[in-house]
Amino acid sequence: EMEESKRLLDSNLLGGSRIGQLAVYNRQKQKLVKQKEELHNKETEMSQLMKIAEEKLAGLEEESEAGSQYADQLKTQLKKLLDLEVAAGKNEDLDTLQQLMLLSEALKDQETQFKTSCKTQMKELQEKIAEIDQFLELSVSSPLPSAISEEDKRMLEVEAA
Fold first, then answer.
1. What is the tens place of the pLDDT at every residue in 135-158?
2. Residues ≥6 apart with Cβ < 8 Å to 148
3. What is the spatial distance between Cα 59 and Cα 62, in angstroms, rounded to a whole number?
4. For residue 3, which of 21, 28, 20 has the smallest C-alpha distance?
5. Helix or strand run (H / E) with residue 144
6. What is the radius of gyration, based on Cα positions, of the chain?
7. Model-level pTM greater than 0.70?
Protein backbone atom coordinates (compact mmCIF):
# COMPACT_ATOMS: atom_id res chain seq x y z
CA GLU A 1 0.00 0.00 0.00
CA MET A 2 2.82 2.32 0.74
CA GLU A 3 4.38 1.81 -2.65
CA GLU A 4 1.02 2.39 -4.27
CA SER A 5 0.64 5.70 -2.51
CA LYS A 6 4.18 6.74 -3.53
CA ARG A 7 3.34 5.96 -7.09
CA LEU A 8 0.17 8.04 -6.98
CA LEU A 9 1.98 10.95 -5.35
CA ASP A 10 4.77 10.83 -7.95
CA SER A 11 2.34 10.71 -10.82
CA ASN A 12 0.36 13.65 -9.39
CA LEU A 13 3.43 15.77 -8.73
CA LEU A 14 5.15 15.12 -11.97
CA GLY A 15 2.04 15.00 -14.01
CA GLY A 16 3.03 12.06 -16.08
CA SER A 17 6.09 13.76 -17.46
CA ARG A 18 9.16 12.01 -18.61
CA ILE A 19 10.80 12.42 -15.21
CA GLY A 20 7.73 10.89 -13.58
CA GLN A 21 7.84 7.99 -15.93
CA LEU A 22 11.52 7.55 -15.21
CA ALA A 23 10.87 7.56 -11.47
CA VAL A 24 8.14 4.93 -11.88
CA TYR A 25 10.46 2.88 -14.05
CA ASN A 26 13.26 3.07 -11.44
CA ARG A 27 10.90 2.03 -8.64
CA GLN A 28 9.65 -0.92 -10.70
CA LYS A 29 13.23 -1.82 -11.52
CA GLN A 30 14.21 -1.71 -7.84
CA LYS A 31 11.17 -3.78 -6.98
CA LEU A 32 12.09 -6.37 -9.63
CA VAL A 33 15.75 -6.43 -8.49
CA LYS A 34 14.59 -6.92 -4.91
CA GLN A 35 12.26 -9.76 -5.99
CA LYS A 36 15.12 -11.26 -7.99
CA GLU A 37 17.39 -11.21 -4.92
CA GLU A 38 14.65 -12.71 -2.75
CA LEU A 39 14.08 -15.45 -5.34
CA HIS A 40 17.81 -16.07 -5.57
CA ASN A 41 18.02 -16.31 -1.76
CA LYS A 42 15.04 -18.69 -1.75
CA GLU A 43 16.66 -20.73 -4.51
CA THR A 44 19.91 -20.96 -2.52
CA GLU A 45 17.99 -21.90 0.62
CA MET A 46 15.93 -24.48 -1.30
CA SER A 47 19.12 -25.84 -2.88
CA GLN A 48 20.65 -26.28 0.56
CA LEU A 49 17.47 -27.90 1.86
CA MET A 50 17.46 -30.15 -1.21
CA LYS A 51 21.05 -31.24 -0.51
CA ILE A 52 20.15 -31.96 3.12
CA ALA A 53 17.09 -33.91 2.01
CA GLU A 54 19.17 -35.88 -0.54
CA GLU A 55 21.74 -36.70 2.15
CA LYS A 56 18.99 -37.83 4.50
CA LEU A 57 17.44 -39.86 1.70
CA ALA A 58 20.79 -41.54 0.97
CA GLY A 59 21.19 -42.29 4.70
CA LEU A 60 17.68 -43.70 4.87
CA GLU A 61 18.30 -45.81 1.77
CA GLU A 62 21.47 -47.19 3.40
CA GLU A 63 19.52 -47.91 6.59
CA SER A 64 16.78 -49.53 4.53
CA GLU A 65 19.34 -51.72 2.75
CA ALA A 66 20.92 -52.64 6.09
CA GLY A 67 17.45 -53.40 7.45
CA SER A 68 16.70 -55.59 4.44
CA GLN A 69 19.98 -57.45 4.90
CA TYR A 70 19.21 -57.91 8.60
CA ALA A 71 15.73 -59.17 7.75
CA ASP A 72 17.29 -61.63 5.28
CA GLN A 73 19.72 -62.79 7.96
CA LEU A 74 16.83 -63.28 10.37
CA LYS A 75 14.93 -65.29 7.75
CA THR A 76 18.01 -67.46 7.18
CA GLN A 77 18.46 -68.02 10.90
CA LEU A 78 14.76 -68.82 11.30
CA LYS A 79 15.02 -71.39 8.51
CA LYS A 80 18.06 -72.92 10.20
CA LEU A 81 16.19 -73.05 13.52
CA LEU A 82 13.22 -74.72 11.86
CA ASP A 83 15.56 -77.24 10.23
CA LEU A 84 17.18 -77.91 13.61
CA GLU A 85 13.75 -78.33 15.16
CA VAL A 86 12.83 -80.89 12.50
CA ALA A 87 16.19 -82.60 13.02
CA ALA A 88 15.54 -82.62 16.77
CA GLY A 89 12.25 -84.42 16.09
CA LYS A 90 14.18 -86.93 14.01
CA ASN A 91 16.69 -87.25 16.85
CA GLU A 92 13.84 -88.13 19.19
CA ASP A 93 12.78 -90.82 16.73
CA LEU A 94 16.39 -92.03 16.52
CA ASP A 95 16.63 -92.12 20.33
CA THR A 96 13.42 -94.16 20.49
CA LEU A 97 14.75 -96.51 17.80
CA GLN A 98 18.04 -96.90 19.65
CA GLN A 99 16.19 -97.72 22.89
CA LEU A 100 14.09 -100.29 21.06
CA MET A 101 17.20 -101.84 19.55
CA LEU A 102 18.82 -102.09 23.00
CA LEU A 103 15.64 -103.66 24.36
CA SER A 104 15.63 -106.14 21.46
CA GLU A 105 19.24 -107.10 22.16
CA ALA A 106 18.46 -107.53 25.87
CA LEU A 107 15.50 -109.75 25.02
CA LYS A 108 17.67 -111.83 22.67
CA ASP A 109 20.21 -112.25 25.46
CA GLN A 110 17.41 -113.32 27.84
CA GLU A 111 16.14 -115.77 25.21
CA THR A 112 19.63 -117.24 24.79
CA GLN A 113 20.04 -117.54 28.55
CA PHE A 114 16.60 -119.15 28.82
CA LYS A 115 17.43 -121.68 26.06
CA THR A 116 20.76 -122.47 27.74
CA SER A 117 18.99 -122.93 31.04
CA CYS A 118 16.39 -125.18 29.40
CA LYS A 119 19.11 -127.27 27.73
CA THR A 120 20.92 -127.64 31.05
CA GLN A 121 17.72 -128.69 32.81
CA MET A 122 16.88 -131.06 29.93
CA LYS A 123 20.32 -132.61 30.20
CA GLU A 124 19.96 -133.01 33.97
CA LEU A 125 16.52 -134.57 33.53
CA GLN A 126 17.81 -136.91 30.82
CA GLU A 127 20.64 -137.95 33.14
CA LYS A 128 18.11 -138.67 35.89
CA ILE A 129 16.00 -140.66 33.44
CA ALA A 130 19.09 -142.60 32.41
CA GLU A 131 19.89 -143.28 36.06
CA ILE A 132 16.32 -144.43 36.65
CA ASP A 133 16.47 -146.63 33.56
CA GLN A 134 19.70 -148.18 34.84
CA PHE A 135 18.15 -148.62 38.22
CA LEU A 136 15.10 -150.28 36.67
CA GLU A 137 17.29 -152.59 34.63
CA LEU A 138 19.16 -153.53 37.76
CA SER A 139 15.98 -153.98 39.72
CA VAL A 140 14.50 -156.20 37.00
CA SER A 141 17.56 -158.40 37.08
CA SER A 142 17.59 -158.51 40.88
CA PRO A 143 14.33 -157.30 42.30
CA LEU A 144 14.70 -155.45 45.56
CA PRO A 145 11.38 -153.78 46.22
CA SER A 146 12.65 -151.90 49.22
CA ALA A 147 15.46 -150.24 47.17
CA ILE A 148 13.01 -148.14 45.10
CA SER A 149 11.67 -145.18 47.00
CA GLU A 150 8.12 -143.96 46.79
CA GLU A 151 9.21 -140.86 44.88
CA ASP A 152 11.04 -142.92 42.28
CA LYS A 153 7.96 -145.11 41.86
CA ARG A 154 5.83 -142.06 41.17
CA MET A 155 8.39 -140.81 38.66
CA LEU A 156 8.28 -144.16 36.92
CA GLU A 157 4.50 -144.08 36.77
CA VAL A 158 4.56 -140.54 35.31
CA GLU A 159 7.11 -141.57 32.66
CA ALA A 160 5.12 -144.65 31.76
CA ALA A 161 1.95 -142.68 31.25
1. 888 776 655 455 567 777 777 777
2. 135, 139, 156
3. 5
4. 28
5. none
6. 61
7. no
